[in-house]
């Protein structure tokens, strides 16, 4: 059995999970660009120099590793984004506080937001606990 890629119309085997031309990644990238340009809340905040510097500091602090995957799932994964532990929608004053940030992979970020829907307080406690463990193990400065 074969599949047809909806983007490039290439025919490929069902044994492959996605189009060999990498169309899924291209579709995601386009979607993210459109979201960032048109729908993202707090655009001014995320485009500020202060945020970009702080994001880089957070990335370095956690050595580009996803903390959630490391301690929750016992897997080493490279992170890709910075997550506000207490969301900006709840407390904008914590937006530029390094202790309110954690570096995560995209999958972990989605998982955490799903957990926020059921029990945000418990999830926040768990994230902060992982940060404390990281700081004890690596002195808070990364590997």
- The number of helical segments is 5
Shape descriptor reads: globular
| Strands, total number | 4
Uncertain residue ranges: none
Protein model, in words:
By secondary structure, this protein is mainly alpha-helical. It has 2 domains: 1-40, no CATH class; 42-143, no CATH class. The protein has helices at residues 23-38, 43-46, 49-61, 67-72, 106-138, and strands at residues 2-4, 11-13, 81-84, 101-104. The strands form 2 sheets. It has a two-stranded antiparallel sheet with strand order 1-2. It has a two-stranded antiparallel sheet with strand order 3-4. The chain is globular and about 50 Å long. It starts with a strand and ends in a 5-residue tail after the last helix.
Topology of this structure?
Layout: E1 2-4, E2 11-13, H1 23-38, H2 43-46, H3 49-61, H4 67-72, E3 81-84, E4 101-104, H5 106-138
Antiparallel strand pairs: 1-2, 3-4
Short description:
The protein is mainly alpha-helical and 143 residues long.
Please tag this protein with its features.
single chain, 143 residues, mainly alpha, 2 domains, two-stranded antiparallel ribbon, globular
């Amino acid at each position: 059995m074969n599949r047809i890629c909806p983007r490039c119309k290439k025919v490929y085997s069902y044994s492959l999970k996605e189009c060999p031309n990498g169309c899924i990644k291209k579709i995601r990238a386009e979607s993210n660009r459109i979201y960032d340009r048109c729908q993202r809340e707090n655009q001014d905040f995320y485009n500020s120099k202060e945020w970009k510097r702080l994001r880089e500091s957070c990335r370095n602090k956690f050595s580009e590793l996803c903390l959630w995957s490391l301690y929750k799932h016992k897997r080493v994964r490279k992170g890709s984004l910075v997550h506000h532990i207490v969301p900006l929608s709840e407390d904008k004053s914590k937006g530029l506080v390094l202790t309110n940030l954690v570096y995560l992979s995209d999958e972990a970020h989605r998982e955490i937001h799903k957990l926020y829907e059921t029990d945000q307080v418990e999830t926040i406690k768990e994230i902060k606990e992982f940060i404390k463990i990281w700081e004890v193990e690596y002195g808070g400065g990364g590997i």
